[in-house]
Amino acid sequence: MRLSLRAVAFFAVFCGSVLSGSSDAHAGYEKNDIGALVDYTAKYEDTFIHLARRNGLGFVEMRAANPGIDPWIPGAGTKLVIPAHHLLPDAPRKDVVINLPEMRIYAYVNGDKAPLSFPIGVGREGLSTPLGKTTVVRKVEGPVWRPTPRMRKLDPELPEAVYPGPDNPMGTHALYLGWSQYAIHGTNKPYGIGRRSSSGCIRMYPEDVKVFYQRIPVGTQVNVVNQPLKLAWIGNDLYMEAHPDLEQTIKMEESGVIEQQKMSDADMNLILQRAGTFQDYLNWPKIRTAIRERRGYPIVIAHVPESKVNVSAGGDDDLDKKDESGKEAKAPVVRPAQKPEYATTVKVGGGSLDQTITVIPVKKPRIVPRID
Predict the structure, then answer these.
(1) Four-way CATH pick for 92-225: 2.40.440.10, 3.30.930.10, 3.40.605.10, 3.10.150.10
(2) Among this protein's residues, is 15 annotated catalytic?
(3) CA distance 9 to 326
(4) Per annotation, catalytic residue among 86, 173, 185, 243
(5) Tens digit of pLDDT for each residue in 149-161?
(6) Helix 206-215 vs helix 5-20: crossing angle, to nearest 10
(7) Is there a catalytic annotation at residue 201?
(8) What is the pLDDT of residues 181-219, one digit of tens each?
(9) Where are the domains of the chain?
């Protein structure tokens, strides 16, 4: 069977719903990543907007991963990257985690299966989505959108309320948070997903919010973090995933180019911390390039040969390793290589893996409205 990444994702969601039966089964997923990177050849009718939606991605994700390519007319035969491989955020793997720079939401509701993951739209400049922890306090199917006093002051022609229907900016479903005037909801402008497009709320594709609404009960904790740089060990390889930060995201959306920055002390410390006693294996030129470009998908920044580390079959205990002086040293947890799933051609350390499917293009209009 030939399936798109989107079709596989929804099949996994359905199976997870049947097997887990309850969103209380949070713990158990031990891998540090989900999905896979895919090579794709553009068709005449493709745009980044439609490729993103079809593959569970956002607009900026597609643009960052494919620099120098026209997002509206990539052109037939153009080689593209579908950046559907994600490292999990550095946060407790429970309930819901939102990583703002990544513009992605993770829901740990499948027990020992991979978390659900969806692209989102977040607060635009000056109307940022808050950081921290809150909870889902109520859920509404067919929400009523009521503009805030600030919105009506800026645009006096706004109505007092917009009731359920195609013109409702909240879409068909809403999960209200403990923070006043903030919610996770759908949208009537799906081309705003994967952008800083909202007034602070979290927007989801219409098809995604329906799944999310069904799986997330009232009382679920929501943890909003700001992690443009993510690192994780997968087998003997240390991976790094660098996204544009919240300020750079605006430039990436508009022009596909961001101002190059030197590596910060915080980034340096994070990388060294994750490398642990394997710092000598870090590829610093590759790291600096990744931080400058911020392509938004994981790359290998260190490989530890088998002869230098004992590979464990699992568990969370640190592994012992002798340094050159003969002293025992603690190494980061290194597990057998884990194969990302759902790919046509999977780029992991330069090789190809055997779990594959084919992304099927779907014809879409070439003219796409932009956000005002």
Answers:
(1) 2.40.440.10
(2) no
(3) 48
(4) 185
(5) 777 777 777 877 8
(6) 10
(7) yes
(8) 899 999 999 998 988 776 678 999 999 999 999 999 999
(9) 92-225, 229-304
